[in-house]
């Protein structure tokens, strides 16, 4: 069986890496087509995954339109050469690869606000989403319990490495907070916003009164010269270890908040996605007591300080995490089972065709 898997973001690398390894261990062939993003490629290398870069990450819709033809040319060429039995992806690129190779394509989605499902739906065989997904995508739509991030952060597959504290330069009992700032440059971020420059500075100043603060700034443009915070500068593959050891995450982004929840780390999320039309996975995680989705910046400051002052918060979060993951699906097993199933189907079809010809 041959599986072609699209990795367009760091989160995609994490989501599929265990499935790729497991499929290869079972004797199947896997190829990852990835976008040239510095973090994405570093993670692919760290996980030792078989990959080919199809193009650079576009920083705007204008640049995406300019680069799209070359992206598609490389994707089509690689897909035809590899000749997969099944394709996994998220949006139009995977749909194109499946269409030109006449290969069953599986879209794995978790964001109702993205247009990926609109573009891909006519061309894919199935769409997989968490059960909390708030849209009905028709008869191709299948749901699993939990969130996509359990593929790599379920306690059965991830064990935090406490030595990350030494690399960060913090003591064994020294409290620290991670702050993640979004660049809001994705096509799904159009019209959305997070913390303003002034709010970022005030947030970091307030947090620094209670803990050591590390900042992961997606834009890479934050000036730390007069800030009471340090840049998070470890290898991207160490982020989950750092997140697991943290006492708090505050973010105006999405994925890291879900990751913190699965690691039992108190998490505060604030951006303009938050509200009545928020994504189902964040609503579910808040109902489980693992995430606080806040619209008000004043509430962010107040609750962040409250959680850092609460010595029992991390223990409570870990207990809630254990309860949450107790009955959820194993996403890696699900992906592997689907891949092998479609591979078997294509083999049977090819064999039947050969029998008919003879």
Automatic annotation (TrEMBL):
Keywords associated with the record: Coiled coil
Q: Which Pfam families match?
A: DUF354
Q: Which residues form the signal peptide?
A: none
Q: Which residues form a coiled coil?
A: 294-334
Q: Which InterPro entries match?
A: DUF354 (IPR007152)
Q: Has the keyword Cytoplasm been applied to this entry?
A: no
- Record's protein name: DUF354 domain-containing protein
